[in-house]
Amino acid sequence: MDVCEPQETKHPTGETFRYIDIDAIDNKSHCVSEPKTMPTAKAPSRAAKGLRSGDTLFSMVRPYLENIAFVSENLCDCIASTGFYICRPREEVVFPLYMYYFLTSSHAIDGINSYMRGDNSPAIRKDEMDSFFLPVPPLQEQMKIVEVLAKTLALINELESNRLSLTDIVTAAKSKILSLAISGKLVPQDPADEPASVLLERIREERSALVKVSKIKCSKGDAAVIKSDDNSYYENVPHGWALARLDMVSDIIMGQSPSGDSVTNNVNGIEFHQGKIFFTDRYLNCSEQYTNEGNKFALKDSVLLCVRAPVGVINITDRKIAIGRGLCAVSPCGSISVEFIFHWLTAFQTAFIEQATGTTFMSITTDVVRKQIVPIPPLAEQRRIVETIDRGLKMLNEIALNLS
User: Fold this and answer.
1) Domain housing 35
2) Residue 161 lies in a domain
3) 97-143: per-residue pLDDT in tens?
4) Same domain for 105 and 186?
5) Do 197 and 53 fall into the same domain?
6) How far apart are the first and last CA of the chain?
7) Position 276 pLDDT exceeds 90
8) Is 152 inside a domain boundary?
9) Residue 66 sits in a domain of what CATH number?
């Protein structure tokens, strides 16, 4: 670059000095993030390049990483590594910021990278930088180009910041929808709906009958419904709702992994899942593993809950599958909506994570799952809640897709 002044050699003096090495460059924003303050006595041999305000640093080591930065007034006392090419334009020919913008352009980066050689630490040489061509418009035009670029890049940065802010808003909105849903504030209550207490009484009777014929085990709970201190039901829940332990309103199956040699790709067995590998946003994808060994099963229309890391991740299975120790199956009873339980468990995910324990890997116990208190709306309201959640989430997912 004939438009640049010769490289300036400068060694540290005094007790300490400020040093810019390649690690000090933020290659996303193309700026110096934080120079190192070092004792002069411990200065590395590479600390030997002087700087002035208006220089542009261009790393000749691994140039594809784009460690490029403009030297502002507050950095001109620093000493740079010899790993940099210091682009100091002759100001009567090239405007400093024009040089900086050119060197951060894909045209310059790709062109300079074409000289790169070496395997372990590919680099370019100083003479190759010296000989690289720079288009030089009239000085006044360079200044206009810089002005337009500065305004355009500021707008792009603002749009990017807003995009990230909108993404956060979308995530928060999804969480808020679920929070409103499980607290009875998403859709209005209808006095004509059959109260959840009637539904829970039916479930209690059905489960009692199944216990008597040994179809299911008796729950450890004392009652199907949570009562308040004055022996009345459903305190602090919306009209028509009830509170119940999860094991009172669903069958809960903790997974048990079969022996390793019983898990194959033979499709004549039953589909086997160990964790979240085949989870999607909602409905479980097909596994590539099968087992013929007697095992724990998740029935059709069950919610799958990860009970081992990553704790709390959920999905719905629309078919019977075998589940390993990483999963738990929650099968709602008495026509309770599997979609409602899915959304409730999603909203409750953080609470599961907070109750996880372990050293090698985090997990939650059977009791943690069974004892969770679930707010149960009337069946008709469950359907309205699910429909409203799904409409809201669909709209938010479309917004998120357009932001990506």
Assistant:
1) 16-136
2) no
3) 999 999 999 999 999 999 888 877 889 999 999 999 999 999 999 99
4) no
5) no
6) 39
7) yes
8) no
9) 3.90.220.20
Helix (H, G, I), strand (E, B) or coil at 176: helix
* Cα separation, 41 vs 209, whole angstroms: 85
pLDDT band at 219 (very low <50, low <70, confident <90, very high): low
Rounded to an integer, what is the distance from CA 199 to the centroid of its chain?
39
Place of tokens 């669909």: 394
User: In terms of domains, do 114 and 180 share one?
Assistant: no
CB 186 within 8 A of CB 389: yes
Place of tokens 């992994």: 257
Specify whether the CB–CB gap between 258 and 272 falls below 8 A.
yes
Same-domain status, 107 and 209: no
pLDDT surpasses 90 at 153: no
CA distance 96 to 72: 11
In order, the DSSP letters of 141-174 are HHHHHHHHHHHHHHHHHHHHHHHHHHHHHHHHHH
In three-state form (DSSP H/G/I as H, E/B as E, the rest C), the secondary structure along 53-65 is CCCEEEECECHHH
- Domain presence at residue 303: yes
Count up the domains in the chain and report the number. Answer: 2
Please check whether residue 63 lies inside any domain of the structure.
yes
How many residues are listed for the chain in this entry?
A: 404
Choosing from 136, 166, 182, the residue where a domain stops is 136
98 & 189 share domain: no
Judge if 125 and 205 occupy the same domain: no
In angstroms, the CA 83 to CA 48 distance is 10
Under DSSP, the state recorded for 308 is B
Which residue type sits at 136?
V
Question: Which SS3 state, helix, strand or coil, does residue 105 take?
Answer: coil
Write the Ramachandran bin of 291: left for phi over 0, alpha for psi from -120 to 50, otherwise beta: beta
Q: How far apart are CA 72 and CA 55, in angstroms?
A: 8
Cβ atoms of 19 and 78 closer than 8 Å? yes
Distance, CA of 166 to CA of 164 (rounded, Å) = 5
Q: Are residues 231 and 377 in the same domain?
A: yes
Interatomic CA distance for residues 374 and 226, integer angstroms: 10
Judgement on whether residues 206 and 87 belong to the same structural domain of the protein:
no
The encoded tokens of residue 55 equal 């220089």
Whether the predicted pLDDT of 11 surpasses 70: yes
